[in-house]
Amino acid sequence: MKKLFVVAFALVAIAFAPQAFAQKMSNPMVGGAEMYPTKDIVDNAVNSKDHTTLVAAVQAAGLVETLKSAGPFTVFAPTNEAFDKLPAGTVGTLVKPENKATLTKILTYHVLAGKYSAKDIMAAIKKGNGKATFTTVQGEMLYASMDGKKVKLWDAKGGTSYVTIADVNQKNGVIHVIDTVLMPK
């Protein structure tokens, strides 16, 4: 009986292992942390050591509850290094309460309503003869094209950013990690 129990337990473990492994490994690691498709955008982002500045900015702008909502959203998530490219003192100034409106405008420029995978973005680029246009939650246009095999984004001021990690699925959307902060007009 004991052997039968051990064999049955082993078979159950083997039967469920591929599902657990697939769920655990279905997303790339971001900032040294696992990103779980069963968690929302905020709950995953707070675990990424590469996104502490973004998380602090989202908190300062009061956007936590929005990004925890059902969505779906597509978030182009700048890394800490992306924020470091801004002129010295910019981030410190933006997170002050008196600059909340400006910070919110910048952060919501990084968000699209709906879930756009890298495949969806590349299909839009192809359909647009090499350039796709998306309306951000902030209301301005964000542009995408291909630069070799990389997705390149253009902001309203002509600045560019590249997607460095694509398709980090969340329960309320998808994150694409980018290397430069995008700026609205």
TrEMBL record:
Q: Which Pfam families match?
A: Fasciclin
Per the record, the coiled-coil ranges are: none
Q: Does the keyword Signal apply?
A: yes
* InterPro entries listed in its UniProt record: Adhesion/Biosynth-related (IPR050904), FAS1_dom_sf (IPR036378), FAS1_domain (IPR000782)
- The transmembrane residues are none
Q: Any idea which UniProt keywords this protein has? A: Signal
Q: Which PROSITE patterns match?
A: FAS1 (PS50213)
Residue span, FAS1 domain:
38-182
The secretion signal range is 1-22
- From what superkingdom does this record's organism come? Bacteria
Gene Ontology CC annotations of this record: extracellular space
Which PANTHER family does the UniProt record give? FI19380P1 (PTHR10900:SF77), PERIOSTIN-RELATED (PTHR10900)
Recorded protein name is Fasciclin
Organism of this sequence: Pedobacter psychrophilus
